[in-house]
């Protein structure tokens, strides 16, 4: 009996060690889900890489006279964005941007200023793709020097002369890049 006890303990320890080394069921489930996602992406989907170029254009004219900081600006995609022969973003797709600076013209010939930055575009599958780009800015023409000079020589009323408003016309083209890698179905 004393000889059987160590054998029983050895067998029990061996069984416990074997149970610990076997993979758990959730890991198998994750592998199946990953394989399914990869197959779905491989056939019909295109991967739009971060940094892909998107050319946008404004749809309406903007002016520093009525634009406000933070205001949304409607835009559209100017050219198709194609990935591996599949169109990911169509020309004419809607997009939007935001006014990042807007200052009304002032006295003493100080011009107005206006800046906009693109923020999102719509892909062919309907999802909104975040884009990044430098702010595009415009400034009106300033006449501060002329206003001060004429005020000194002719009349102080020239100090009331205002600069021009800044404007960005409809159809103004700007470049942006895709912010994050995105799967397009």
Describe the structure.
The protein is α+β, with helices and mostly antiparallel strands. The chain is 26% helix and 35% strand. It is built from three helices and 13 strands. The strands form four sheets. The protein has a six-stranded antiparallel beta barrel with strand order 2-4-7-8-9-12. The chain starts with a helix and ends with a strand.
Main sheet characteristics = 6 strands, antiparallel, barrel
| Strand arrangement, major sheet | 2-4-7-8-9-12
What is the distance, rounded to the nearest whole angstrom, between the alpha carbons of the first and last residues?
69 Å
The structure class reads alpha+beta
Mean pLDDT: 74
Number of helices: 3
Q: Identify the overall geometry.
A: elongated
List unreliable stretches of 5+ residues.
4-41, 141-155
Order of helices and strands: HHEEEEEEEEEEHEEE
Return Rg in Å: 32 Å
Helix content: 25-40%
Number of strands: 13
- Strand-residue fraction? 25-35%
